[in-house]
Design brief:
CATH architecture of one domain: 3-Layer(bba) Sandwich
Shape: globular
Largest sheet: 9 strands, mixed
CATH class of one domain: Alpha Beta
Mean pLDDT: 87
Low-confidence stretches: none
Order of helices and strands: EHEEHHEEHEEEEEEHHHEEEEEHHHH
CATH superfamily of one domain: FAD/NAD(P)-binding domain
Number of helices: 11
Radius of gyration: 19 Å
Distance between the termini: 41 Å
CATH topology of one domain: FAD/NAD(P)-binding domain
Structural class: alpha/beta
C-alpha cells in the first residue's frame, strides 16, 4: 500500500531528485518512479551557472558537488564565424558531467529517505512531473541535440560556436574532460550523414578548437526537440524540461532543473496549489525564455554576426539567468 505521506515524483533526473530532497526537507517523504535503474550519460551542456552554489546549498548537497572537483570557468566566448564576443563571467561557473551530477543527486536523495522505483508510472493529481524534454515536431526541419566528451587541453572558459543553422558549446568538466554539445536541424545532419565530426569541420574556429582533442566516448543524440513551455495537466507540478525547454545556449538548463525541482518538491510537500506554483515558476523563467527566443530568431535569420559586436557577452549572460 502506498504511503500517503509520500509525494510521487515521475522522473529521476536533476529536477526529480531536487524535488525529492526538497520534500524531505519539508518533512515529507518522496517516491521517485523512473525506469532507469542508475544514472547515465545524457545529451547536456554540463555547464552550471555561478548561481548553482546557492541552489545546491538549499538542497544540502554543495559539499558533495564540490568534492567532485568540478572544472571552473571564468569567462565566456561566443563565436559567430570569425567574430568573437568575449567577456568575464561575474563569478566562476562550474562544469560537471551529467553522469556524475545525476549519480550525486540520486545518492543524496536516497540517503535522505527517497525511494526509487524502477518503473514508469502515469501522472496523477498532486504529483511532481519531472520526465524531461518533450519530443515532437513530426513535420518540418526537426532539431536534434548531440554530445560527446574529449580529453586534451580543457581551458577555463565556456565557448559557443554559431554556424549556419547550428551551434555547438564547448566547456570543461571534471577530470580534465571537455564536453562538446550542440543542436542542428535534421536537414543539415542528413547532408552530413549524421557525422558530427563533419559538422565540427563546418566552423573553422570550432575545428581549430577541437583539433588537439581526442574523443573518449561515442556521440549521443537526442530529439526531435521542442522549445518552450509544455502543456501539462493543471493538477500536477511540472519541473525542469517537463515545464519548459529553454535554449541550451543560455547555459541555464541544469540550474532551472534544480530550482524548479526544488520549488515543485516544496510546493507538493506543503500543500501549495499547482497554479500558485506555476505562476512562481513563470515569474522566474519568463525573461530568459523571452530573451532566448529573440536571440534564437536573430541567429536563424543570419543576423548573429551583425549583432555580435554590439551585444556584450556579460549582457547576454545576465539576461538569460532566471529572475
Amino acid at each position: 500500500m502506498a504511503d500517503s505521506n509520500r509525494i510521487t515524483i515521475l522522473g529521476g533526473g536533476l529536477a526529480g531528485c531536487a524535488a525529492g530532497l526538497a520534500a524531505t526537507a519539508s518533512q515529507r517523504g518522496a517516491t521517485i518512479y523512473d525506469p532507469a535503474r542508475a544514472a547515465r550519460h545524457r545529451v547536456c551542456g554540463e555547464f552550471l551557472s555561478p548561481e548553482v552554489r546557492d541552489s545546491l546549498d538549499l538542497l544540502g548537497v554543495w559539499a558533495q558537488a564540490d568534492a567532485c572537483r568540478p572544472a571552473l570557468m571564468y569567462s565566456m566566448r561566443v563565436h559567430f564565424g570569425r567574430r568573437v564576443c568575449a567577456d568575464r563571467l561575474p563569478e566562476p561557473a562550474i562544469g560537471l558531467s551529467r553522469l556524475r551530477f545525476d549519480q550525486l543527486l540520486r545518492e543524496a536523495a536516497g540517503n535522505q529517505g527517497t525511494n526509487f522505483v524502477p518503473e514508469r508510472r502515469a501522472s496523477s493529481p498532486g504529483c511532481v512531473l519531472a520526465t524531461g524534454r518533450q519530443s515532437g515536431a513530426a513535420s518540418g526541419d526537426r532539431i536534434f541535440g548531440f554530445k560527446t566528451h574529449f580529453s586534451g587541453p580543457a581551458g577555463d572558459a565556456v565557448e559557443l560556436y554559431f554556424g549556419d543553422q547550428f551551434y555547438v558549446g564547448v566547456n570543461p568538466v571534471e577530470d580534465g574532460i571537455t564536453n562538446v554539445c550542440g543542436l542542428a536541424p535534421e536537414s543539415l545532419l542528413r547532408r552530413l550523414d549524421f557525422s558530427y565530426e563533419a559538422l565540427l569541420e563546418l566552423s573553422p574556429a570550432l575545428r581549430e578548437r577541437t583539433q588537439p582533442l581526442r574523443r573518449t566516448m561515442n556521440w549521443l543524440t537526442t530529439g526531435p526537440l521542442v522549445y518552450g513551455r509544455r502543456t501539462q495537466p493543471p493538477d500536477v507540478f511540472a519541473a525542469g524540461d517537463a515545464f519548459s525547454f529553454i535554449d541550451p545556449f543560455t547555459g541555464a538548463g541544469m540550474l532551472n532543473a534544480l530550482e524548479t525541482g526544488r520549488m515543485a518538491g516544496t510546493a507538493a510537500a506543503t500543500g501549495q496549489s499547482p497554479d500558485v506554483y506555476r505562476q512562481a515558476v513563470l515569474r522566474r523563467l519568463s525573461r530568459p525564455l523571452f530573451v532566448a527566443s529573440v536571440f534564437r530568431g536573430a541567429v536563424a535569420a543570419g543576423l548573429g554576426s551583425l549583432l555580435a559586436p554590439w551585444i556584450p557577452g556579460r549582457w547576454l549572460f545576465a539576461l538569460t539567468r532566471p529572475g
